[in-house]
Design brief:
It is a single chain. The protein has 2 domains: 216 residues, Alpha-Beta Complex (Naphthalene 1,2-dioxygenase Alpha Subunit, Chain A, domain 1); 114 residues, Rieske Iron-sulfur Protein, CATH 2.102.10.10. It is globular and about 75 Å long. Helices cover 21% and strands 27% of the residues. Helix 3 packs across helix 6. The chain has 8 helices and 17 strands. Strand 14 and strand 15 form a beta hairpin. The protein binds FE2/S2 (inorganic) cluster and fe (ii) ion. The site of FE2/S2 (inorganic) cluster (FES) has 9 residues, from loops.
């Protein structure tokens, strides 16, 4: 059984990964109330006033329209027409009105109903319900984040990352489409996440990465909505040139691995940032999407952030093996290494907490 004390806690029940009620609970109540990385202001450039997007395709499938008003403020709304539910914005455009392609209903870039043809005789129209449903948006330039109905503030979620890496010129990081990709993992999304949350497996699963990182010096930190793992570079391996006064100044850091609840990973390397967005599909399949933001082009193929494809393949294979194991009638749950699995324990506690309403 899982308990708050890692010293005597068991892992989460294997039923978590298989119970359809839990799956649906996360889909309906957890993911829509969490924060998500959506895009960036290079793919939604200042020349555009509106653009469609989709939150977690093949899972939430929630249509979104991003808008940029005359003051350059980015907002997001449900991209669903309040008439008969057509998607109102179908492509990026510089128009300052959103016009539904189905019957011509018009909305402002602030999501307000403006006009509807052939409705002159309709009574009590328009009403509040005719405006677009607003979503919460936050920008940490160049990254754009969204939550349909946030349960906790964006700053609570992002602050640990922002304060630790405030010295990084994130706004100068450039999205590079040709290094960004996506692929499918044959496992539950939470198994992919828990594998990410420990460096314990590095010597066993990632021989290449193990040659670069100092296993004994690996660090883990827990936050209310995430974790940070720090990979320390072996002598002669590439590391950050940390500014004097920054929190970890003096350490040879090869990578900052941030995970933000529930499904976002931001991996900072001396060359820039690699984001993994973990998209649940069904209890047996997950799509992992990679988005690369380059800061120092010359460093891109080196250090812990070098052979990322190989590391991914190794993780994909072991997570698939765990997916099979978790369904075995003879596996009833395990225990945690107090030294090496604090992040996984933290994650399991969060998952367990989310399911509490289902048990009452
Ligand atoms: S569905 Fe949009 S105007 Fe009819
Ligand atoms: Fe791994």
């Amino acid at each position: 059984m899982i308990t708050p004390n890692i010293l005597n806690s068991g892992t989460i029940s294997p039923a978590f990964f298989q119970d359809p009620n839990i799956w649906n609970w996360f889909k309906d109540k957890v993911f829509p109330t969490s924060w998500h990385y959506l895009t960036d202001n290079q793919r939604f450039p200042s020349t555009l006033r509106q653009a469609p997007n989709l939150l977690l395709p093949d899972f939430l499938d929630e249509p979104i329209v991003l808008t940029r008003n005359a003051d350059d403020r980015i907002q997001a709304f449900s991209n669903v027409c309040t008439h008969r539910a057509a998607e109102i914005c179908t492509h990026g455009s510089s128009r300052d009105k959103i016009v539904c392609p189905y019957h011509g209903r018009q909305f402002s870039l602030e999501g307000k109903f403006l006009f509807m043809p052939e409705f002159e005789e309709a009574q009590n129209f328009p009403s509040e319900a005719d405006h677009l449903f607003p979503f919460s948006v936050e920008v940490l330039s160049p990254l754009i984040f969204i939550s349909p109905e946030p349960r906790y503030s964006f700053s609570n979620w992002i602050d640990p990352l922002q304060s630790l890496l405030s010295w990084l010129p994130l706004k100068d990081f450039n999205y590079t489409a040709n290094n960004s990709s996506s692929y499918q993992v044959d496992a539950h999304w939470a198994l992919y996440v828990e594998n990410y949350l420990e460096g314990f497996h590095i010597p066993f699963i990632h021989p290449g990465l193990h040659k670069i990182l100092e296993f004994g010096a690996y660090e883990e930190y827990l936050f209310p909505y995430g974790t940070l793992q720090i990979g320390i570079a072996k002598k002669d391996e590439n590391c950050f040139d940390l500014p004097v006064g920054s929190e970890h100044y003096g350490k040879r850091i090869a990578a900052f691995y941030f995970w933000l609840y529930p499904n976002l990973m931001l991996n900072f390397y001396p060359w820039g940032l690699s984001i993994n967005r973990i998209n649940p599909i069904n209890p047996n399949h997950t799509r992992v999407e990679y988005f690369q933001y380059v800061w120092k082009e010359a460093l891109i193929r080196s250090g812990a952030g070098g052979a990322l494809d190989q590391v991914e393949k190794e993780d994909g294979a072991i997570v698939k093996s765990v997916q099979r194991g978790i369904q075995s009638r003879y596996y009833t749950g395990g225990r945690f290494s107090p030294r090496r699995e604090k992040g996984v324990h933290h994650f399991h506690c969060m998952l367990e907490n989310e399911t509490q309403p289902l048990n009452t």
